[in-house]
Design a protein that fits this description.
Layout: E1 2-5, H1 7-14, H2 21-33, E2 37-41, H3 42-55, H4 58-71, E3 73-75, H5 79-87, H6 93-104, E4 109-111, E5 124-126, H7 128-139
Parallel strand pairs: 1-2, 1-4, 2-3, 4-5
Helix pairs in contact: 1-2, 1-3, 2-7, 3-4, 5-6
Length: 140
């Protein structure tokens, strides 16, 4: 199963944002274990760098980006996903870009804290807690 991680889930894990950190970290560990294939939208990588650098420093941000790139596949953002996002029924363009890039890159679903923002999605959409439960049931 290939899941594209919304930026908020990655930031919850990397920045240790409570009360969301535990579920986000659990999913990142699931990617490390190979329980699922994690995917990041290319725009997520630059956003993570920005927020980590702002909270800590540039070297810490580069380390986090390198770690994420080692662990996750990247859904590229180029003209076609951007155009599809602009024509979509999504209210938020950034969410539409993530969804379009994930579809183009072959993701099976998206994990986000904001499932309502993905009501126009054609991919399955899960909260981090829901996805952890799905993974637990698959291991049984």
């Amino acid at each position: 199963m290939t899941i594209c991680f919304d930026t908020n889930v990655i930031l919850d894990g990397v920045l240790q944002r409570t009360p969301y950190q535990q579920a986000a970290t659990g999913l990142i560990h699931a990617v490390e274990r190979g329980d699922l294939t994690g995917q990041l939208c290319a725009t997520t990588v630059t956003t993570v760098y920005y927020f980590v650098q702002k909270r800590y420093d540039g070297p810490a941000a580069r380390t986090d980006v390198r770690d994420l790139l080692h662990l996750f596949d990247v859904a590229p953002v180029h003209r076609a996903p951007l155009e599809r996002a602009a024509e979509s029924d999504f209210q938020d363009y950034e969410d539409a870009v993530l969804h379009s890039a994930a579809r183009t890159a072959g993701a099976d679903g998206i994990v986000t804290r904001n499932t309502a923002d993905f009501s126009a999605a054609s991919l399955s959409v899960h909260t981090p807690t829901e996805l952890l439960t799905i993974l637990d049931h698959r291991r049984e």
